[in-house]
Amino acid sequence: MKTDVFIAGGGVGGLALAVKLAERGVHVVVAEQLTKESPVYKGELLQPKTLAILERLGVIEDIEDCGHPIDQLRFQEVTTHVDEPPEEVSLTEMNYSRVASRFDHALMVPHEKTKAILRKKGEFYDQYFHYYPGYRFKGFENGQAKIKKKRETINIEAKVYVGAEGRSSPTRDAMNVKVKRKDYNHHFLTVTIPRPATFNKGKIITSPDRFLGLFPLPEDEVRTVYLIKAGEYKSIKEKGLEFLYQAYSELEPELSEGVRSIDDWKTVQLMIPFTYHVDSYYSGNLVLIGDAAHTVHPMAGEGMNLAIQDADVLGELLAWCKEESKPYHQYLHYYEDVRKSRVEFLLHLSHLSALVYSYHFEWWRNLRMNAVQRMLEDDQLHVKQMLNISGLGRWDFSWVDRAVQGGFLPVRKRVISDHKQHKFLFSEKEDYPWKRSNRKDGSHE
Ligand SMILES: Cc1cc2nc3c(=O)[nH]c(=O)nc-3n(C[C@H](O)[C@H](O)[C@H](O)COP(=O)(O)OP(=O)(O)OC[C@H]3O[C@@H](n4cnc5c(N)ncnc54)[C@H](O)[C@@H]3O)c2cc1C
């Protein structure tokens, strides 16, 4: 079988890429090993830049219909007491509306719904979109991709092969790139439970030694993420579900009824955070996107967004190559040029957010609380944080910012104008820089 682009893996990244290519008249084959919905919880928080991309893919209305908007992130520090409501020590609300964009919120959408919407959109371009469910990509044979379903094997010859298989990637193995993994001192338990209709804001509740992230989903559900020490899962499970009921109720009494809907540990997923970032995103005509290229600590809710943002840039590049009759492999460096440093930046931000919640000391909590509070009081810090996590732009923190955040310099009174922010939002030229270049060989200008 012959195609323009072969994609191994029909997760959010692979599907977003396939839809973009099919829409632009590029033939694409997607091999996905699963035939039905995955029972595994995965990313659900769609950041503003991702919403902008989904709008361009023509699926934003369907996505919004299945989503719960998150316009602010609330950080609540509490002191807990057994059988008594928690005592609020501080509450800080960071607002997406500080970002100068019409995409001024994030959206919580069940992961499988996002995938189903993208698949349906792909099928709309059935002349170009060829989806193979139940087919596992096994690697390369004679320069062709080999996919297998039970006893049937298909060899696919493509101009570009994309590894979108997530963390375990045969394409990455074939590229021989370096992967350096970083682990953390904590793990998470994650489970979706019912919520009261009035509980509709994203919230992170912390005490000196506990962390509970709560992200409302549609249909009166909430995705919960509870931090435990690395290696503690077995002993917690032995304590029984009563442990979870009590922990959740002490931190958020509004969910004390919802948490009791968990009737089996099987619904509670252990999530082990780690990060890595490959040293190269492409080799010859093989390319990596999403978790195949990088995995991010989940604290800042970026993993799925990075995958879709990779797909957007790579998709635009490959579609342009086809439209302009340019040799794909000579232009792949543009994809890496745009995405690698942005991903590196967000990996670092997520890592810092993880560190903030990694140590269980009262003094560490005080530092964290003050740093979060100053982020709200100092508009430049507030804008930078929200702009950076939104994916819409990049505005690096300076040493002055960090000194203000650490309390070594006073909070600045200046309010950041939209005009000032616009310099830091990614322009189309920055997202797709090859369009400026007409060099035949695709080399850097
Ligand atoms: C528990 C958990 C919670 C998370 N929470 C968040 C969050 O809140 N926010 C966020 O942004 N991110 C979150 N993430 C990360 C996010 O889910 C991933 O970053 C994102 O799904 C990556 O997308 P992807 O398309 O690159 O890979 P994946 O989503 O992993 O998709 C890869 C696809 O390839 C298929 N596949 C794998 N190998 C093969 C093969 N050999 N042949 C054919 N098919 C194959 C898989 O079945 C899968 O469908 C979370 C991840 C986990 C595990």
TrEMBL record:
Q: Which residues form the signal peptide?
A: none
Iron-sulfur among keywords: no
| Gene3D superfamilies listed in its UniProt record | FAD/NAD(P)-binding domain (3.50.50.60)
A Pfam family it matches: FAD_binding_3
InterPro entries documented for this protein = FAD-bd, FAD/NAD-bd_sf, PheA/TfdB_FAD_monoxygenase
Q: Which UniProt keywords apply?
A: Monooxygenase, Oxidoreductase
List, in alphabetical order, the Gene Ontology terms for molecular function in this entry: FAD binding; monooxygenase activity
At the top level of its lineage, which domain of life is listed?
Answer: Bacteria
User: Where is each FAD-binding domain found?
Assistant: 2-344
Q: What is this protein called?
A: FAD-dependent monooxygenase
Which species is listed as the source?
Halobacillus yeomjeoni
Cite the source lineage. Bacteria, Bacillati, Bacillota, Bacilli, Bacillales
